[in-house]
Design goal:
The complex is a heterodimer of chains A (114) and B (112). Chain A has no helices and eleven strands. Chain A has 114 residues and is mainly beta. In chain A, the strands form two sheets. In chain A, strands 2, 4, 5, 9, 10 and 11 form a six-stranded mixed sheet that branches. Chain A has a five-stranded antiparallel sheet with strand order 1-3-8-7-6, with no helix packed on it. Chain B is an all-beta fold. Chain B is built from no helices and eleven strands. In chain B, the strands form two sheets. In chain B, strands 2, 4, 5, 6, 9, 10 and 11 form a seven-stranded mixed sheet that branches. A four-stranded antiparallel sheet of chain B has the order 1-3-8-7, with no helix packed on it. Chain B starts with a strand and ends with a strand. The chains are: A mainly beta (114), B mainly beta (112). The interface between A and B is medium-sized, with 26 and 26 residues.
């Protein structure tokens, strides 16, 4: 069964600090891996999408890495801001061309304290 | 720049009542999806559509029906609501498999 595991479940850091969120997956066949940010009471918003051949992708202060051989991904947040407080969801796609096939992680709940 | 719009945002139903959730997108996306999000769980796919007039079952379709009569709209129906359907429902759309999904802001449904 396809699975996406995220760690930690929750994390509290001080404003201005960096942090790294982890995602391990057992999804086959692999198509792409996505990171989403979900603010409380809102829908998820896409941060990055990486295919098998990409091992890093940045979006502002967010940098995602992908180890396709180790089936791991990380999301690094640099110089955190209060607005970074949210849940971060790792999603792995296993079907190129199909409409279904996404496996969602449960998310990491990140709190930035002033 | 509306994106994906969901209505209503909140709803309380009594067990056995029926209702329809509406999802509308203005991006001309072919693919549309309905997910539910429950505490401690990842988003789970209820139904999806790959184009106008088509629908397919996802991971948790029981108790729900959908229709895609127009490309821009995707309706989710609850025929006879049950407390187990208390959840937050998200609609999403995309233009293709390797593109990001655009999500609506969600509908919080409580069945009592």
């Amino acid at each position: 069964k396809n699975q996406v595991e995220q760690s930690p479940q929750s994390l509290i850091i001080l404003e201005g600090k960096n942090c790294t969120l982890q995602c391990n997956y057992t999804v086959s066949p692999f198509s792409n891996l996505r990171w989403y940010k979900q603010d409380t009471g809102r829908g998820p918003v896409s941060l990055t999408i990486m295919t098998f051949s990409e091992n890093t992708k940045s979006n502002g202060r967010y940098t995602a890495t992908l180890g396709a051989d180790t089936k791991q991904s990380s999301l690094h947040i640099t110089a955190s801001q209060l607005s970074d407080s949210a849940s971060y969801i790792c999603v792995v796609s296993s079907l190129p061309g199909g409409a279904d096939g996404l496996t969602f992680g449960k998310g990491t709940h990140l709190i930035i304290q002033p | 720049n509306a994106g994906v719009t969901q209505t209503p945002k909140f709803r309380v139903l009594k067990t056995g009542q029926s209702m329809t959730l509406l999802c509308a997108q203005d991006m001309n996306h072919e693919y549309m999806y309905w997910y539910r999000q429950d505490p401690g769980m990842g988003l789970r796919l209820i139904h999806y559509s790959v184009g106008e007039g088509t629908t397919a079952k996802g991971e948790v379709p029981d108790g729900y029906n959908v229709s895609r009569l127009k490309k821009q709209n995707f309706l989710l129906g609850l025929e006879s609501a049950a407390p187990s359907q208390t959840s937050v429902y998200f609609c999403a759309s995309t233009r293709g498999q390797n593109y990001g999904y655009t999500f609506g802001s969600g509908t919080r449904l409580t069945v009592v």
